[in-house]
């Protein structure tokens, strides 16, 4: 291993999990992230027992304490419960899965880590003398260093070294919004329907509608909604597969016209999919992206001390995907391989993980189609 700390690009779930797991093994790491602060992921994600139980050993926590620490409804005594029957396509969601507040989860995992904020990677170069990282703050790191790209679907690490690796945009129109409501409104309208679940889905007029809990306090609740449907070809004014990241907040008027056309919605969908109220929400248009890096390329990069994990190596669609769970598993298992200090072990890690990545990617594509299909199973609202 290099005498310098291992450099992890990206302080998201995968990056902090890897960093924490390496730190627990006495391996020094530094994380570099583009964000100006850590407070940026105030929404819920679904975690499965196969993912969070291995985390418990690293965090030295029991399951009850862990869930009460990070569950979206922890502040009011909840444990993030999910009812799979309230989902269109539960996939891996079972009664042991739960909704975790991503920001609180990341904060819990990253305790003790050295994270350099406002220090995202601008580019990476390989030279005969090693690797050089050029950071957004003007600093650079060079030498015989080990680097892990954990910087997500738009990974600068991947783009710097695999310029031909592109992203596939799946043909679905998806909008996501966040809203804060009073506890009175939440308790009167949302809670009676959600009951023992923090996420619920239905179909209406060819669209998938989802409502989920992000956070609950004594005074208010933060909820998210998703409106998603298959794209209708090049004439679809809501489908912009080539949009830039900065255009994600540009919401076409046709979307609100579609929302207005929704009829006979049950609660809490009729409350949240109210066109006038939605105008005040923080709304983004999501692109369902997928990508993967070939195994021989991963082997070659590893031989030069450069690794890819999480969405940097195997992006999958947000809907129907398991990106967060796989990123955490990547971090835990890659730490074991790196700690072995054996190049063959890293190659073995890729050989074991790659089939799982491929299977998950293909399953995510199938799941998102099933979620939107006419024959999709009905959730029990």
Automatic annotation (TrEMBL):
Its cofactor is FAD. Residues 8-341 form the FAD-binding domain. Pathway: Secondary metabolite biosynthesis. SUPFAM superfamilies: FAD/NAD(P)-binding domain. InterPro entries: FAD-bd, FAD/NAD-bd_sf. The keyword NAD does not apply. GO terms for molecular function: FAD binding; monooxygenase activity. Keywords: FAD, Flavoprotein, Monooxygenase, Oxidoreductase. It comes from the Eukaryota. This is FAD/NAD(P)-binding domain-containing protein. It holds the Pfam family FAD_binding_3. Belongs to the paxM FAD-dependent monooxygenase family. PANTHER family: FAD-DEPENDENT MONOOXYGENASE APTC, MONOOXYGENASE, FAD-BINDING.
């Amino acid at each position: 291993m290099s005498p310098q700390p291992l450099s992890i690009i990206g302080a998201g779930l995968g990056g902090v999990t890897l960093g924490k797991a390496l730190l627990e093994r006495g391996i020094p790491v530094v994380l570099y992230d583009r964000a100006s602060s850590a407070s940026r992921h105030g929404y819920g994600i679904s975690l499965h027992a196969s993912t969070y139980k291995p985390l418990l050993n690293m965090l030295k926590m029991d399951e009850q304490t862990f869930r009460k620490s990070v569950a979206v409804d922890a502040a009011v005594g909840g444990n993030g419960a999910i009812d799979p029957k309230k989902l269109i396509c539960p996939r891996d969601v079972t009664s042991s899965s739960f909704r975790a507040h991503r920001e609180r989860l990341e904060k819990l995992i990253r305790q003790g880590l050295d994270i350099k904020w406002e220090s995202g990677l601008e580019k990476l170069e390989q030279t005969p003398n090693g690797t050089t990282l050029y950071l957004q703050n003007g600093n650079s790191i060079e030498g015989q260093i080990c680097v892990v790209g954990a910087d997500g679907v738009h990974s600068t690490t991947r783009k710097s070294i695999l310029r031909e690796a592109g992203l596939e945009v799946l043909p679905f129109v998806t909008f996501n919004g966040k809203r804060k409501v009073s506890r009175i409104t939440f308790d009167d309208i949302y809670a009676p329907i959600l009951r023992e679940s923090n996420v619920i889905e239905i179909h209406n007029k060819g669209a998938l509608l989802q409502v989920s809990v992000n956070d609950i306090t004594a005074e208010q609740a933060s909820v998210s909604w998703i409106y998603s449907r298959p794209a209708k070809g090049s004439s679809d004014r809501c489908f912009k597969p080539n949009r830039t990241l900065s255009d994600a907040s540009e919401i076409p008027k046709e979307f609100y016209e579609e929302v207005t056309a929704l009829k006979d919605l049950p609660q809490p969908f009729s409350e949240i999919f109210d066109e006038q109220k939605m105008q005040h929400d923080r709304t983004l248009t999501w692109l369902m992206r997928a990508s993967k890096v070939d195994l021989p390329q991963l082997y070659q990069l590893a031989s030069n001390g450069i690794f890819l994990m999480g969405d940097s190596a195997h992006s999958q669609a947000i809907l129907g995907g398991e990106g967060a769970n796989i990123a955490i598993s990547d971090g835990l298992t890659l730490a074991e391989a790196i700690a072995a200090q054996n190049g063959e072990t890293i190659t073995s890690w890729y050989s074991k993980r790659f089939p799982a990545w491929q299977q998950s990617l293909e399953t995510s594509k199938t799941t998102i189609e099933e979620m939107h299909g006419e024959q999709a199973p009905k959730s029990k609202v």
